[in-house]
Amino acid sequence: MSRRVAINQTLLVAVAAGFTFVSTAPLIWMALGAFKTVAEFIAIPPVWIPNFTYLRNFSDLWDNYAPFLLNSLLASVGSTLLTLVLALPTAFGLVHFKMRSANALADWILSTRMMPPIAAAVPLFIIFNWLGLLDSVWALIIGYAGFNLPFAVWVAMSFLRRVPRAVLEAARLDGCSWLQTLMWVALPMCVSGLMTVAIFVFIFSWNEFMLALFLTSRTARTFPVVIASFAANSKMYWEYLSTSTIIQCLPPVILSLVMQRRIVSGMTMGAVKQ
Description:
Layout: H1 2-33, H2 38-41, H3 56-96, H4 102-113, H5 117-131, H6 137-160, H7 165-173, H8 178-186, H9 191-207, H10 210-215, H11 223-229, H12 238-258, H13 260-267
Helix pairs in contact: 1-12, 3-6, 3-9, 4-6, 6-9, 7-8, 9-12, 9-13, 11-12
């Protein structure tokens, strides 16, 4: 019996390793391509191990496209802050205020998240054009926050429910307003959940492509739009495509690794009823 279990475990590990290799091989190849020249990209046989001291692709991207990387950072951070400012009071009110239509309102908020961004691209283009915000980072911040708000509200509701009502009532008896109760009592007790919402909203905004393509043209272009421009009809800029893809992946990966414990803690908040 033990031998059969060992064989089964070996087979499962082999299958998992195979799926892992198939999934990660394109990413590894793209990462290696960031250190290749154009000649090495089209060389036959392929250059498997590039010269890792070759950093011209990175320097060229930084010299020519650093402002667009900054646009992505500003839009992602700005939309994350705006989403938190709007989502946390909304979630707190839906959880702790007595309203007849609280559940219906929460369901309606969630339903708006099901709309694909492309469905709102043209209306948003018209609105921001009328406001004079086209091709600006402000348009991206508002648009990203609007699409991430339903997700943030629902996740925030899940961890705000864990705050004991007795603690909130004690704060109110001590003279705290509802805003003070939220800021100084509820949120400090839900730091892990707050960080979870912030990280996911940042990643969603950082990787967003469709709205950035519609709402920007030149000045406020984000890095995903720049990456798409390297795949032109007449020529594929493989060296820049590989390098920019690695740069685009680094912030979410680093943020997820650094905040991994916070993410796991926040995702499991409220999983067990006490």
